[in-house]
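Late entry, iron/sulfur cluster complex.
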Amino acid sequence: MSPKTFEDLITEVHDKGICQECGGCVSFCSSAEYDVIGFTKPNAPPEYINKDKCLECGICYVICPQTHYLHEELDTTYKSLDFHEMPIGHYDKIYSCQSKDSKFLEVGTDGGVVNSLINFLIEENIIDGAIVAKMESPFSRESAIAYNKEDLIKASGATLDISTQLNEVQKFSTYTHSIPKLNHYKFKKLAVVGTPCQIYTIRCMQALGVTPSQNIEVCLGLFCYENFFFEKAQIEKFQKDFNINLKQVEKINIKEDLIFKIHDEDNNKRTIHLPFNHLNDYMRTACNACSDFTNIYADISFGGLGSQDKFTTVIPRTEKGQKIFTKAKESDIFDCVDLGEAKQEKMRDLINNFAKNKIKRYLEFLKKMGIQDNYKLGRE
Ligand SMILES: Cc1cc2nc3c(=O)[nH]c(=O)nc-3n(C[C@H](O)[C@H](O)[C@H](O)COP(=O)(O)OP(=O)(O)OC[C@H]3O[C@@H](n4cnc5c(N)ncnc54)[C@H](O)[C@@H]3O)c2cc1C
Ligand code: SF4
Ligand code: SF4
Ligand code: SF4
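Prediction complete; structure with ligand written out below:
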């Protein structure tokens, strides 16, 4: 029997409305140099560009998070077989940390821990660089590679010259197509910062041993409840709905809700919290079809949820993740809160509840779309 191909992804994933637009198929297409498939429109699944160059190898089908082809294998490798009960995934201990580097802390989303760690890994020659996402405007990020501290700081989200950029931006998306960029950096030892859907496709490629996944030394996973997308026409509605002038946004963060730090022209500062369930009009539709909140296949996961302001929640998972994190901690680049057993448990329950809510939303979405739950999450 010939393998399933991108044609099958179109019928089984795209046409059913469950493509997560993670970019995995585009990034790891065996015939990538011919641009067989690619993203041609924003907020839409990839399409054939040069179909005649398709090798019909089936890689795109196997690595797609929505075919669940390698889920069992990954769940075994990353010890998350009881995902349904413990959607927080495999871990030993949860940490809450803050960068000791004042610049990373200043520009960091939470505690500046991710960028501090990447910088440490570069300095220790564990990696040559990292694929990160550079802030272009409050709702727009571009994938970028960082080779040093300066690049990392430039890629951070807090320092914005919003007013001019905003006028030029036509589409607003908090989602970055970082994974398709991987092919550009083939000869490097890289860290990749990514959302759960992105890290999933990388892990599939590593399981299959297909280039360029062997160059990915470390997967740094961000928590992700959902991502946002809207076109210029919706901006006015957004600003009106939530009484936010996007030109005054100093910083955006996502923890248990979407948080805007506003700094207006009269020098007044305020913080606005928008609950996820008020943001359905702006959420990427693709995110409804996603069940992983905490990035269970990452080497280390990071989020804001559970930690106080300016601290990052850190969950080392794999042996490599544990080793790297311990080495960084021992090198004194972070301040870590001493979380006793009770606080650990409280944090785990909070994160697990968010993760369970995401699974619930996923199952409801599948039901609405009349799709079978192949991942068998609705098995109680
Ligand atoms: C789209 C998105 C959704 C998130 N949702 C949640 C959530 O629901 N709950 C929660 O607790 N935390 C969420 N997070 C994680 C949280 O916002 C912080 O990124 C995390 O706590 C790390 O903070 P830090 O200060 O240690 O990272 P920093 O030191 O500031 O480093 C962050 C790194 O992430 C990279 N990056 C930023 N955006 C992206 C992107 N879109 N794709 C790939 N890389 C990116 C940056 O370039 C930088 O290298 C989300 C993050 C993102 C990007
Ligand atoms: S060449 Fe292989 S990976 Fe690329 S589109 Fe065709 S089947 Fe998919
Ligand atoms: S979910 Fe990702 S891998 Fe699957 S079709 Fe969509 S973009 Fe490609
Ligand atoms: S919720 Fe996050 S991880 Fe899931 S599809 Fe959306 S961007 Fe990807």
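DSSP finds twelve helices and 15 strands in the chain. Will revisit in the morning.
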